[in-house]
Amino acid sequence: MPRTFPSIEQVSQLPRLLQTVIPPEYEDLNGHMNIQHYMGLYDKASYPFVALLGLDETYFTQQRKGIFDLEHHLHYLAEVHIGDTVSIYGRLLARSAKRMHGMWFMVNDTRQQLANTFEFVSTHADLEARRTAPFTDALAARLDAMLTEHVTLDWDAPVCGVMGA
Length: 165
Prior knowledge:
single chain; alpha+beta; Thiol Ester Dehydrase, Chain A; six-stranded antiparallel β-sheet; 4 helices; 25% helix
């Protein structure tokens, strides 16, 4: 069954993690933003996302806990050009004791188009042992609060169907 993608209005119900203007150095020989910069922008959006969960530099450096990405799925829907303003919005879809499943949406604000989706599975990690570890109670509670908020949305995330927490 084909996926149905949300409207710009639906995506804008989510927390905006990042907004930026695409610089000239992001252009490739096809005249649009090069593939490597999508991942770079999603990486930049990860810091505001974890901040929404209460994770800051102290969590990573002093508590020695972190988040590792395990899987990604990118879906390109419309070109992004140099000078376009884009925003990235985040939605949490599910979690287990150690993992979270989410989707981020890149909106081309200049052209009013959904340009790209980024689906991911990430795991909580003990940075000393360099292994996956259960979410702390506090982090699990914040994830659950975000999930409660996101499951009330009246639209389904266009997941690829092969990923999960």
